[in-house]
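[Structure tokenization] protein backbone as discrete codes
[Encoding] learned vocabulary of local backbone shapes
[Protein] chain in single-letter code, fold in tokens
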Amino acid sequence: METLRLHGYGATGTCRTNSGVIQDLVDMKKNDKGKGELPWGTLISMPTTSGLVNQIGWKDNAFALMMSTVFDGNTLVSRLRKRPKESSSKAKTAQKPFGDQPTKELEIPQPYDSYNHQMGGVDIADQYAGSNGGQRRIKRGAWQALDQWLLITALVNSYLVAFYSNTKGKWEVNFRSQQDFRIQIINSLVTMSKDAPDTKKRSFGTSNCSELEVQSIKGHCLIKRSTRTNCRACKGERFNDLKRPRAPLAQIAANQGRESKRRTSIYGCNVCDLALCNNGSCFDIYHRI
């Protein structure tokens, strides 16, 4: 909490008894039972020795501990609250301020009121990212996972900014959901790429060899095959490798010094009749272009 404040960020949240809270507040929470139960509305605020963080304890249904770098812990706000049910474990204490009324305006500490109405921001962000995580599966490489996380976070934040900024219909583009928002972004990017000048378009997945420039080996093209098998270039094989039968129990040296990866692809070379990744590089690497 102190580090967040030193970097200019405000934070408020509940905490456990083993999270470095002042011992007096911890003892009050542990003794809040039986004959020593605290009355409803008990409020204690203690700053840390640095004076940067307030540690607060307030008795509602239970004695809840909280830390905050924003609130002083003594300011109260009025809120309309419902009386707890009889089945509640702390019903006797929590029902006293209500009397016979089912609802009542009660004075509540401002940090607890703000926490109750604004908590869950991280959970909401995870839900937006989790429900629209993209179709690409990350199997290896921490940088790939970080890159995808940054991209998804940017998309989620863009959607939220656009959603809250367009409450009065100021924009010409309207969207009903995050999925609709992303689809419109994709369509706009595709339109921009088509209209961009001097773009070299490279087509894959067709049998038209004239669309793919092959300089050293004529007639070889990247096409879509009927079966999905391991990419030969990722396995370390090359077009000029000698196709010799391997002797049983002989030393494996054909792919020595080459990085071996297992990736499957439904694309491949039309002449060589083998699988190659549809990423624009495996075809060239295999044929040594």
Notes: Confidence is low (pLDDT under 50) at residues 201-216, 253-259. Residues 142-165 form the longest helix (24 residues).
